[in-house]
Amino acid sequence: MNLKIAYVKERSFTRGTYYWLMFMIDHYQSVRSMLKIDYESFIIIQTVVSHFLHSMNKDEDGDWNRMWELVTDEKAKDNLSKSRLISSSISLVTGLPKETVRRKILELNNKKILVLDEKKGLRLGEKFEIFHKKFTQRSTLKVSEMLNKWDKIGALEFMLNVNKRQIPATVKALGKTLKFEREIYK
C-alpha cells in the first residue's frame, strides 16, 4: 500500500470518528431536550423497543408506517408479546442495577410511556408514539447525515471492510468482549 492511500485511510478514520462522536453527543443532548428524560431511562425504553421490534420482525417485515401502527394497536401488541420482558431481563442486558431499572420503569409507567403488566410483562404504553416518534424521525435523519459524511470521506467503506489488522490494539479486548456477549445471549 502506498503512503498516500495509507494517509487517506487514516485521515478518513479520524474524521469518521469525529463525526461519530459528534453524533453521540448530539444524540445524548436530544434525549435530554426532546424526550426530557435521563439516559438510563432512555436505555430502558430502547430495550423495550428492541424487544418489540424483535417480536415484530419474527412475524413480518414492517416499514416505518407499519411499525407505528403496531405500536398503537393493543391487539397487535398482545400478539407480539408472546415472550414476556421483565425488569430483571432489562437489568441483565443493560448492566443497570435491578433497583434502578425497577424505579425508572415505575416512572415511565406513570407517564404511560411504558406499561408494566404483571401477566404480559413490559410493553410500550399508550403515550409512547407521541413521546418517541419525533425523536425517532430526527435520530434517523441524523444517522443518515453521519453515514453520508462517512461515505463522502471514505470512512463508510473503511467501516464496512475493517479487519483485525487495521485496529490491532483493540482486537484482543474486543474478541474477549464478543465471546463474553455470545455466551450471555445463548
Count of DSSP strands: 2
Mean pLDDT: 81
Beta-strand percentage range: under 5%
- Strand arrangement in the largest pleated sheet: 1-2
- Rg, please? 20 Å
From the structure provided, what is the oligomeric state, counting identical versus distinct chains? Answer: single chain
Categorize the overall geometry. Answer: globular
Gap from first CA to last CA: 41 Å
Give the low-confidence spans. 1-8
Instruction: Output the number of helix runs.
Output: 9
What class would the helix/strand composition place it in? mainly alpha
Could you give a short account of the major beta sheet? Answer: 2 strands, antiparallel
H/E topology pattern = HHHHHHEEHHH
- What is the helix content? over 70%
How would you briefly describe this protein structure?
The chain has 9 helices and 2 strands, in the order H-H-H-H-H-H-E-E-H-H-H. It is mainly alpha-helical.
